């Protein structure tokens, strides 16, 4: 348990320091205020910092066949670092945003922290956590959209192009991935301990509707406004 928990703590501290440094950098810029930075959730402004490479699934074919006990070198560390990131972002939102503004993300992060935490502590389901991290590839374009909004660049070609890519990657890496994970849980329910299966099922039951609702909001905002 030690190395995993140390990685979580180290990741939390590193993202915390990075967040503080970026806050000072932005607040010191002419005409900028701290509130501008908080609007994109601190370290989330660096998209893809906790996203896995899809190449892992190509280089390790056994991973797609066994998501419980099989994982490539470094995968456990990646999941542990991701837990630290989500913990830092959770604390950041609690300290700097009102509850009615961030309750959905806080709820989202709580589910991720619990599910990924189980993988880190048990050294199992790391492959399943890697599949879940694929959804963060879409975060690159989701956060870029937020940055463009804050820069008042809505009526630009860059924003329109990013909106199209954002929705495309949203369908591929979020909705499709969550659907595949739900199917995997259903097909492997007899091979997963009841407690772990319950946590995974509840997590999917929470995350899937949240992502569908967000997709509808993005579609309505960027294409049917």
UniProtKB/TrEMBL annotation:
Residue stretches making up the TLC domain: 16-225
Protein name: TLCD2 protein
Name of the gene: Tlcd2
One annotated Gene Ontology cellular component of this protein: plasma membrane
Transmembrane segments: 128-144, 164-186, 198-219
Membrane topology according to the record: Multi-pass membrane protein
Main location per the UniProt record: membrane
Source organism: Steatornis caripensis (Oilbird)
InterPro entries xref list: TLC-dom, TLCD
Keywords of the record: Membrane, Transmembrane, Transmembrane helix
Entry's Gene Ontology BP terms: membrane assembly; phospholipid homeostasis; plasma membrane organization; regulation of membrane lipid distribution
């Amino acid at each position: 348990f030690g190395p995993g928990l140390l990685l979580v703590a180290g990741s939390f501290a590193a993202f915390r320091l990075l967040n503080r440094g970026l806050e000072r950098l932005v607040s010191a810029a002419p005409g900028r205020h701290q509130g501008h930075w908080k609007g994109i959730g601190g370290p989330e402004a660096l998209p893809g910092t906790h996203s896995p490479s899809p190449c892992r699934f190509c280089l390790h074919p056994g991973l797609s066949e066994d998501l419980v006990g099989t994982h490539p070198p470094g995968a456990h560390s990646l999941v542990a670092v991701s837990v630290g990131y989500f913990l830092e972002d959770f604390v950041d939102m609690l300290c700097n945003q009102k509850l009615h503004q961030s309750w959905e993300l806080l709820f989202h992060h709580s589910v991720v922290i619990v599910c990924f935490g189980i993988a880190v502590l048990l050294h199992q389901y790391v492959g399943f956590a890697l599949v879940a991290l694929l959804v963060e590839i879409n975060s690159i374009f989701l956060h870029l959209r937020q940055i463009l909004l804050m820069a008042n660049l809505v009526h630009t070609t860059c924003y329109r192009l990013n909106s199209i890519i954002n929705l495309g990657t949203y369908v591929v890496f979020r909705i499709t991935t969550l659907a595949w994970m739900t199917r995997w849980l259903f097909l492997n329910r007899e091979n997963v301990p009841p407690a772990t299966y319950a946590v995974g099922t509840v997590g999917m039951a929470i995350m899937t509707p949240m992502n569908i609702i967000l997709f509808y909001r993005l579609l309505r905002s960027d294409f049917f406004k």
